[in-house]
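Review form for a predicted model. The reviewer records the input and the model, then writes brief findings.
Reviewer: anonymous (R2)
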Amino acid sequence: MAEPVDRARIAAAVRELLSAIGSDPDSAELASTPARVADAYAEFFAGVGDDPVRHLADAVPVGDDTGELVMLRDIELRSVCEHHLLPFRGVAHIAYRPGRRIVGLSALPKVVDTLAARPQVQERLGQQIVDALDAGLAPEGVLVVLEASHGCVADRGVRQAGAVTVTVASSGTLSSPEARGEVMAFIGGASARALADGGAA
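Model under review:
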């Protein structure tokens, strides 16, 4: 797959940005900054145009002895808010009830990484993870809980450095309050317990 970003254009844009804020992009301190930012953006936005469902292609059939629930907690998450192009980071908790197939656990962080590596909002990211698992595995139900701190909240405006945003997305059998409450109990934490009781973040 071709790289989605044009590093030369990013570098040129960064030079213009530095000039626009009154700095000299040709100074010794800043001369390498445009190229460095271009390299960073190539990493931050590597998921643009990439299909996360491809990570689920190696799913295998399961039998009656598979169990009722698969969960992977505390998947490290890093993305960039599309509103201010500032980072947000935290963890993702993913649970699904298998249908006819399961996938290796390492595939789940890959799905998260692909979808997070593009301009995002946390609320949409959670739903996109659910949609990818539904498309790739056809499970009976999916629940995704994201907990993240946002640069646009911590570093500008209200400057609430300790604030954490919690979002929930679900499908199928894990959309009911009872099923969600059971999974939230496994996830643990005050925010999860509040959500299990019907609250919202």
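Findings: The radius of gyration is 20 Å.
Further findings: Helices lie at 7-20, 33-44, 107-116, 122-137, 151-154, 177-187, 190-196.
Recommendation: see findings above.
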